[in-house]
Amino acid sequence: MVKHVIIWTLKDNFSEKEKQEIKASIKEGLEGLKGKIPGLLGIKVYTDGLSSSNGDLMLDSMFEDRAALSVYASHPEHVAVADNKVRPYTKIRSCFDYEVK
Questions:
Q1: DSSP line for 18-36
Q2: What DSSP string runs through the chain?
Q3: Do 13 and 100 contact (CB within 8 A), yes or no?
Q4: Which of 22, 23, 58, 87 could pair with 47 as two cysteines, CB 3.0-4.6 Å apart?
């Protein structure tokens, strides 16, 4: 299995209210992919980090294997969420993928 973890930082020009709405929209969009993409075993977005966090939200997802992660990356439903709900609002994206043994 492969874990795919991303931490995003939102752009600075949003109010706190706007940031909460954006985070909720990203969560809804990404978690809505469950059951729609082959090989995607689990997907969860965390939006309420502790004060020690240096990102605004985190994606924690699990795939059957590397091939399934590759399918996800280019799947039209994932690309639509990324293009419409994530990329326009984020300034920093940090990713860490690893195999679970």
A1: HHHHHHHHHHHHHHTTTTT
A2: -EEEEEEEEE-TTS-HHHHHHHHHHHHHHHHTTTTTSTTEEEEEEE----TT-SSSEEEEEEESSHHHHHHHHH-HHHHHHIIIIITTTEEEEEEEEEE--
A3: no
A4: 23
How far is the C-alpha of 15 from the C-alpha of 10, rounded, in Å?
A: 11
Question: pTM score, two decimals?
Answer: 0.95
pLDDT in tens, 38-47: 999 999 999 9
Q: Up-side HSE of residue 59: CA atoms within 13 Å toward CB?
A: 29
- What residue ranges define each of the domains in the chain, with the CATH number in brackets? 2-99 (3.30.70.100)
